[in-house]
Amino acid sequence: MDFSAPETLAAVAIAAVAGVVRGITGFGGAMVMSPPLALLLGPQLAVPVVLLLEGVAAAPMVVETRRLVRWRVIGPIAAASFLTVPLGGYVLLTAEPQLLRRAIAAIVIVFALLMLRGWRYSGPQRTATGVGLGAVAGAMLGATSVGGPPVILYLLAGPDRIEITRANLTLFVVLSSAAGLAMLWSNDILDATAAWTGLLLAPGYYGGLIAGSRLFLRFNDTRFRQFTLLLMVAVSIFVLVA
């Protein structure tokens, strides 16, 4: 790992901001981190680092929320994502880094704007729909580390209480991150450099997450989500054209 001091400080700051956002809103860690880290570190290092940070952050929450999980809804999504994560990994391995970095930024822009407009999936929650959605999310996650947004939009449109939706989403993040990390490890992308970089960024990310969780009650949730999504769009546009 051979980063300059400014690069290291920038990466730590990005991780800390992403942690605060995730702590307050309950989502968005990967969406905040992935585009600027892909620009700063390159996609092949940014993707495993983001999956490490997100997967470890979500794992303890599964223990707390496991009884609320609706396997009939999230099971097909998770299973299909396992099958297509390697497809995303192939894209990560073979795509030109600059093109992939811009693709990551473009994905974040599209889904941030959809969330900002309040768009939701309007069809029924069928097993076939979940399988198709999971296949798309798995490929996105393997290639870019951003696989959660389509699942978020799908689950938020369902009839379940927000507690159940969060439990389903948390389980998906943990399972898909584990599948993504296993795929990256088997292709030598999750290596010592990625592990040490994740360790370097972990204090800022998890410190920000704790701070964000404590600040949650002091913010208007709707307003902060809108601000966060606009921030994601602005940062991603910069990454897209840089």
Short description:
This protein has 242 residues and is mostly helical. Helices cover 82% and strands 0% of the residues. The protein contains ten helices and no strands.
Could you characterize what this model shows?
There is one protein chain. This protein has 242 residues and is an all-alpha fold. It has one domain. Helices cover 82% and strands 0% of the residues. The chain has ten helices and no strands. The longest helix is centred in the last third of the chain and has 25 residues, at 162-186. The radius of gyration is 17 Å and the shape is globular. The two termini are 24 Å apart. The mean pLDDT is 86.
Secondary structure topology:
Elements lengths: L4 H21 L3 H13 L1 H23 L5 H24 L2 H20 L10 H18 L3 H9 L5 H25 L5 H24 L5 H21 L1
Helix pairs in contact: 1-2, 1-9, 2-3, 2-5, 2-10, 3-8, 3-9, 4-6, 4-8, 5-10, 6-7, 7-8
Distance between the termini: 24 Å
Specify the structural class: mainly alpha
Strand content: under 5%
Output the radius of gyration.
17 Å
Please give the largest β-sheet.
none
What's the number of structural domains?
1
DSSP summary, beta strand count: 0
Average pLDDT works out at: 86
Q: What is the 3D shape?
A: globular
Give unreliable regions as ranges.
none
State the helicity in percent bands. Answer: over 70%
What is the count of DSSP helices, taking H or I runs of 4+ residues?
Answer: 10
Topology as a string of helices (H) and strands (E):
HHHHHHHHHH
